[in-house]
Amino acid sequence: MIKVLIADNHPIVRMGIKQVLNSASDFEVIEDVSTTSELFEKLEKVTPDVVMLEMDIPEINGIATLRKIKQEFPDIKVLIYSGQSEDVYALSTIRAGAFGYLSKTADLDYIISAVRKVSEGNMFITNELAQRLAFDEGTQKPRRFFRKLSTREVEVLKLLASGKRNKDVALGLNLNEKTVSTYKARLMKKLNVDNLVDLLQQAKALELY
């Protein structure tokens, strides 16, 4: 049996995923949690094969949570799922150590195949995403810039785009303000802008709002 823990703050989403997984004979949903503190409490007591982690789960953002799981429970595989732009976040989460990324707009069948693939230690992204990653490289769409950004830069940009000040970004990511300023300067250079307004426009184009 493939043991799964679902981490999402929406009860109806957890119930829906549980029903989909329970419809297959080789899955067992051993726990479901609504916050990151609950998640780490449960991981001290149970050992799932796969954690299905919602990107915007409360308390700690998904990428920071993913890093913590990788550090404290290295044998547990993480599948991130989200309503956020697949183009932007899939690469970022995989770079941070996720075994896969599933969009909430994906077909239900993908849930079973994604969790099964991740449990075997294989990478999962949808065919649609694989095709877009292959064919968008030559276009002028803003998201092509994203491939230049590190996972941490994406985190900083997302927080800036949500209206956070340098001080708040520093607190949220456990950095000092000077480091955040350095990231901001680096983001402006990589996204080819020279002021904060244009930087936030790029964030909007990258669907980080």
TrEMBL record:
SMART domains: HTH_LUXR, REC
Keywords, alphabetical: DNA-binding, Phosphoprotein, Transcription, Transcription regulation
Record flagged with keyword NAD: no
Domain Response regulatory residue range list: 3-119
Pfam families: GerE, Response_reg
Domain of life: Bacteria
GO terms for MF: DNA binding
HTH luxR-type domain residues: 142-207
Gene Ontology terms describing biological process: phosphorelay signal transduction system; regulation of DNA-templated transcription
PROSITE patterns listed in its UniProt record: HTH_LUXR_1 (PS00622), HTH_LUXR_2 (PS50043), RESPONSE_REGULATORY (PS50110)
Transcription regulation keyword on record: yes
Name of the protein described by the UniProt record: Response regulator
